[in-house]
Amino acid sequence: AEKSQDMPSHLQLDLSEDDGQPLLARFTYVDEGTCIGCKNCAFVARNTFFMEDDHGRARVWNQGGDSLELVDEAIDSCPVNCIHFVSYEDLWSHV
User: What is the pTM of this model?
Assistant: First the structure.
């Protein structure tokens, strides 16, 4: 299915047809309260991150949208270390 920036990433996960569990083992999360809106992650991994309009902070819109190497580069580019990998359960707990 087509992914959209208008819908939270945890509601757009690719799930296994066998058991309905997520295909990914870990998920990317931005602590938006810590984000300073530098846009680095959105420039590096634009198929994963975007800058939301209301507060100008980064947000994940497409889990698995970029290669792990590109997401790692985006995480490394963050000057305030507000991007983390989390479990499926932790992704839902941050909602």
Answer: 0.90
Helix (H, G, I), strand (E, B) or coil at 68: helix
Residue 39: CB atoms within 10 A of its CB come to 16
Torsion sign (Cα): 29, 32, 33, 34: positive
Integer Cα distance of 65 and 46 in angstroms:
8
User: What does the block give as tokens for 51?
Assistant: 């800058």
Question: Digits of tens for pLDDT over the chain (95 positions)?
Answer: 689 999 999 999 999 999 999 999 999 999 999 999 999 999 999 999 999 999 999 999 999 999 999 999 999 999 999 999 999 999 988 76
Q: Are 36 and 73 in contact (CB under 8 A)?
A: no
- What is the distance between the alpha carbons of residues 35 and 50, in angstroms, rounded to a whole number? 12
Taken in order 73, 65, 5, 88, the sign of the CA dihedral is negative
